Amino acid sequence: MIVGAGYAGVELAVVVAERLKGAAAIQLVTPGASVLEGCPAGQRKAAETALAELGVDVLCRTKVEKMSAPGSEGALPHATSVSLLEETGAREQETALVLWTAGSSPTTKAAEGRKGIPFPINERGAIQTVSRSHAELPTGAQGCPLVHAAAVCMSKERLWWRGKE
Predict the structure, then answer these.
(1) What pTM, to 2 d.p., does this model score?
(2) Are the C-beta atoms of residues 156 and 122 closer than 8 Å to each other?
(3) Which residues contact 7 (CB under 8 A, 6 or more apart)?
(4) Which value, to the nearest 10 degrees, does the dihedral of the CA atoms of residues 155, 135, 51, 30 take?
(5) pLDDT digits (tens, 9 = 90+) for 92-117
(6) CA separation (Å) from 152 to 36, 104, 126?
(7) Mean pLDDT of 43-71
(8) What is the pLDDT of residue 145?
(9) Given CA atoms 15, 145, 58, 127 in this order, what sign does their dihedral have?
(10) Cα–Cα separations (whole angstroms), residue 128 to 82, 131, 139
């Protein structure tokens, strides 16, 4: 599951789908009405076509409300339990991997741009991570190895190429 259908999320979904060649189901989740919302219509159409051709399941008007780490109450040992809020109501889904690209916004608008995401954020609005890209789940300080935040959304203190763990 890839959360966020901006440029980073769409590109990531396309690359993962191309590499996996149908070996796994790929979902792209966005609270918006379409992928690349706010971008030129031609770019949106091209992205929608590419995603459809690769079999990516795009879930529009869908929001991730919360996630549970593998093995926690209600989650399978090797899957993250994701609570999705759709227009038709709420549902739970198990997923092997979550790649989070949503919430990237200018730091001057961090408070508005990150409202409602299921992770703790720092004062700049960046997702708190416990190691490398493993997102910190709000249920505790333990990171979830199956939930990764893209570098554009993370706090810079945890970026592995800066030599910090």
Answers:
(1) 0.70
(2) no
(3) 36, 39
(4) -80
(5) 888 888 888 876 554 445 455 556 66
(6) 16, 6, 8
(7) 90
(8) 60
(9) negative
(10) 18, 9, 13
